[in-house]
Write a structure and sequence with these properties.
mainly alpha, Preselin/SPP, globular, hydrolase, 399 residues, Peptidase_A22B_SPP, two-stranded antiparallel sheet, two-stranded parallel sheet, transmembrane
């Protein structure tokens, strides 16, 4: 080892040891107390598969499963109500445009592409501005979204038992009409998010982060919808390229993987950003967390929820539909992601690199074989017969 080019190489070998922070503190206290300290060095073997990855897989699959059924249930309820209105409506009503607010946002191909572009800009901003103050801002934004998501999920769940409270409203300044059930649930949701934000550095804070994150993802999948397979294909294809670029290709432009640096929260003094689900590695002697980003659940979840809505509206059985196969393809793709992660010795892997081909490839192939590709690609829902099609005006007057 030399410091200057003309110095003699003395072959000095200094071992470097990585210790957990708590072990380092104990060792430092012992040395400062003039105690006799003996250290034995060893390199523990990491387990091939940690149980945390199994639970994280179950969390991701379960989140999409719950969100898909909620979305499909809402879509079927809306379709039933629309059929009732059409059945009892007059001719003037049939000629009117549907201007009712459903609270659902259908994305199109343009917004799908813009989403990935905006996400890329936001990722670069996170990378460049990563600091303690900026992460604090992200925590605040995450808490706001988590409160809204948790409140929406709890209100939808509790309204089955407290139907009257969910259907009675009160006018609140700045918020308009708010149900009594929402008013009752909101303080709990706000308190939950605030407590997590204050104590997010404790060892069990990941539980609160996962609860808020799952509630936020489920709510987004309920509000934002993919109207057809065309939009879903554009969205997942762009996300596929986005994930590969920012994990692998970005090293050529920024000398390091932008996605991995942002996910770890480097230079922020925090243990990663809050926009991900994580579980501590339970049997890994090196510690750390197994993580999955919101996008790895949310983006495939949009198209999987679409398949279940289509299956229910077309009255397909579970096996004859598309949801079961899309769900299995997603689970398999995520499983392959963890296999690749372990084979690459823990180096970050873009999950969508494996999830998108499995999920999208399965849907496109299956739809082509069954002859449903044109309907799924364009209209996105089965043809529905109008109840008035067999009724003449004179017949309706005599009823």
């Amino acid at each position: 080892m030399v410091c200057e080019a003309n110095e003699t190489d003395l072959q000095i070998q200094i071992p470097a040891v990585m210790l957990p922070q708590d072990a380092g503190s104990i060792l430092e206290d012992s040395l400062n107390g003039n105690s006799s300290v003996a250290v034995q060095l060893y390199s523990p073997q990491r387990p091939l598969v940690d149980i945390a990855e199994v639970f994280l897989w179950l969390m991701a699959v379960g989140t999409i499963l719950c969100a898909s059924y909620w979305s499909a249930w809402s879509a079927r309820g809306a379709a039933i109500e629309q059929d009732k209105l059409l059945k009892d409506a007059s001719d003037d009503y049939l000629n009117m445009e549907d201007t009712s607010a459903t609270g659902v946002v259908d994305i199109n191909t343009t917004s799908a592409v813009l989403f990935v572009v905006i996400a890329s800009c936001f990722l670069v901003m996170l990378y460049k501005l990563m600091s303690y103050a900026f992460v604090e801002l992200l925590v605040v934004l995450f808490c706001i979204g988590g409160v809204e998501g948790l409140q929406t999920c709890l209100v939808a769940l509790l309204s089955r038992w407290f139907k009257r409270a969910g259907e009675s409203f009160i006018k609140v300044p700045f918020f308009g009409a708010v149900s009594h059930l929402t008013l009752a649930v909101s303080p709990f949701c706000i308190a939950f998010a605030v407590i997590w934000a204050v104590f997010r550095r404790v060892s069990f804070a990941w539980i609160g982060q996962d609860i808020l994150g799952i509630a936020l993802i489920v709510t987004v999948l309920q509000i934002v919808r993919v109207p057809n397979l065309k939009v879903g294909t554009v969205l997942l294809s762009c996300a596929f390229l986005y994930d590969i670029f920012w994990v692998f290709v970005s090293k050529s432009f920024f000398s390091e993987s932008v996605m991995i640096v942002v996910a770890r929260g480097d230079n922020s003094g925090e243990d990663g950003i809050p926009m991900l689900l994580k579980i501590p590695r339970m049997f890994d002697p090196w510690g750390g967390y197994s993580i999955i980003g919101f996008g790895d659940i949310l983006l495939p979840g949009l198209i999987i929820a679409f398949t279940l809505r289509y299956d229910w509206l077309s009255k397909k059985s579970l096996r004859a539909g598309y949801f079961l196969w899309a769900m299995m393809a997603y689970g398999l793709g995520l499983l392959i992601t963890y296999v690749a992660l372990n084979l690459m010795d823990g180096h970050g892997q873009p999950a969508l690199l494996y999830i998108v081909p499995f999920t999208l490839g399965t849907l496109l192939t299956l739809a082509k074989q069954r002859g449903d590709l044109d309907i799924l690609w364009g209209r996105g829902e089965p043809e529905r017969i109008c109840p008035h099609i067999h009724l003449q005006p004179s017949q309706r007057e005599s009823i």
